[in-house]
Amino acid sequence: MSNEIIVEDSIFRVGRVISVDGRSIRVSVDKAKNSSHLVYKGDLIKNVSVGSYIKIIKGFTIIIGKVEGEFTYEDKIASTKEYSSDKEKINRSLSVSLLGFFNKKEFERGIKEMPLVDNECYLLDRQEFNQVHDFIRKTDEPLVIGTLTLEKGQTITVGIDSLFASHIGIFGNTGSGKSYTLAKLYFELFKIYKDNQKFREKSNFFLLDFNGEYVTESENVIIPKDYKNIYRLTTKNNDGQKYPISKETLYDHSFWAIVLEATEKTQTPFLRRAIGNSSLADKIKTNDSLKELIKNTFWLGIAKNDGELGQKVLIEFLSELYYSLGYSNLLDIRDAIRERIKFYARDNKREFVYIDAEGEWHWDNDMRTKILDHFEELELPDTEINDLDVLKIQIIFQYYDEIIKGFANIEHLAPLIKRLGKNFSDIRKVIEAKEDVSTSKNFTIVSLKEVNIHMRKILPLLLCKQLYEEQKTKNDETSHLNIIIDEAHNILSRDSNRESEQWKDYRLETFEEIIKEGRKFGVFLTLASQRPSDISPTIISQLHNYFLHRLINNNDIIAVEKTISYLDKLSFEYLPILPTGTCILAGLSAQVPVVIDIGAIEKEFEPNNKTRSLIENWKD
Ligand SMILES: Nc1ncnc2c1ncn2[C@@H]1O[C@H](COP(=O)(O)OP(=O)(O)OP(=O)(O)O)[C@@H](O)[C@H]1O
Ligand SMILES: [Mg+2]
């Protein structure tokens, strides 16, 4: 052994293993190493402390552990000696958890061998330290995201493949830097690839922005505005931007099942029948055939001679149509007929009868002619009814047709028809059907800031499901979709009283499916949220990479602790005290959990989320 190695060994040696208990190891520190720094070749080297790494040598195997705790106790024998230095009077021991090992000069996570008592322990040299923090696999490319917090100057790079072909979770309290971290990841990614033709063709990024943080005036957040589509949706009025959907989507009953919050067993099949009824659609499109349709349906309802049904058709059917048609005199006709029709007893049964202005009674065919005469005065809008309205009217006709014929149960379908008006009027403010929805840009931001709470639940589900299904049917192994959702608790929370249980299950199941199955089709989620405890544990536990910012609430910490297996005890202790912009990176793309300072984004590309300064605004 050369002199150099002996010196190095003696300097870098910190102690030896004194106990092995499962994954936790105790190391007794050499008394000469009870100082905070060591001097080696004129350099000051930080001695072991909580949070640092040590290597344990077991024959030819090098095992790496992380120091989690430090303890001292008095050395009784040394204390009784009069001339010993104070340093020698204490024994120092470390608790260490095992992280991985060196495999042919490369660091690998996991445990292959356990150390033995009396194995020697050393500090890591610079090269080994770098290897432990080198997260890039051989086939991957690096992306610089920040620097190590505890080791200033050590940049942290992650593999692009291992990060972006994975589900990412970013959690932390408000103001802890989640949105900034999210923006940083994609900012760095786009910086490298944005001009690559293949990147633009093969990948698709879709960002849901609940607070309008990513749609500043300059529209340059994350990437310059020329590279992305921005949709600022609003339900406040009809003048906002609209998200384009294809004609195919428009006639997809599962799309409407989401918009109308349809139940799976009865309402969704009904919608399928309604939307698939193309002959109905054709009739609605021209005024003459529409008039016929109204007359026929109305008469069908009366002819059943069912008092309750007749009243319903008379009043609700015509009113419903009136509100969907835009303009018509249907209400006048309804009132005129209502005045003339009575439900009366004749020959031991009750029947509808038409009493004309002269007081004469008309039954059967006679009555039919009289009633239908009223519709001669029907005026309908002379502009063409747009596709969305045709669809809505189609649903109304199908509903009354089935009810009148007794095919469907009112109790099952009525709630759906009740939602029709409100949900339709909301959805038409935010989407439009287009022949061609293709775009050359592969980054889309949808801002839901101005969208009402009701649509905030429906729209994300609608859009994400749509994108997911599209990607699934593409069946192209080279294509890739990233769905990015900031403030993800808005749609992934388990407790919400605004919706039915069934609907909530459906919403969660959809995202759970993307999490569970998405990888196969190249669909990946990036979620940021302040409330991990609110989000379904199935979703949190299936994420691959975690950026954990400051978390103070105990429930949130527990939620993270329960579901994330990558994190060691020490990292959990850090969670409540992390400063803004600092987070723990754990998961598949980091061999060891590391505390990192997220690097800065150029000013122009930052999200719009400045923490307000009150006094700045209050100064005269
Ligand atoms: N790495 C960082 N470098 C510089 N500034 C940062 C960094 N991270 C966060 N900030 C700043 O801290 C503030 C809060 O950050 P951010 O809006 O990202 O927090 P958040 O966790 O998304 O909060 P909220 O939950 O309210 O959305 C912002 O002004 C942001 O510019
Ligand atoms: Mg945010």
From TrEMBL:
SUPFAM superfamilies documented for this protein: P-loop containing nucleoside triphosphate hydrolases (SSF52540)
One matching Pfam family: DUF87
Source superkingdom: Bacteria
Entry's transmembrane regions: none
Annotated Helicase HerA central domain residues: 144-295
PANTHER family linked to this entry: HELICASE MJ1565-RELATED (PTHR42957)
Name of the protein described by the UniProt record: Putative ATPase
Source species of the chain: Galbibacter orientalis DSM 19592
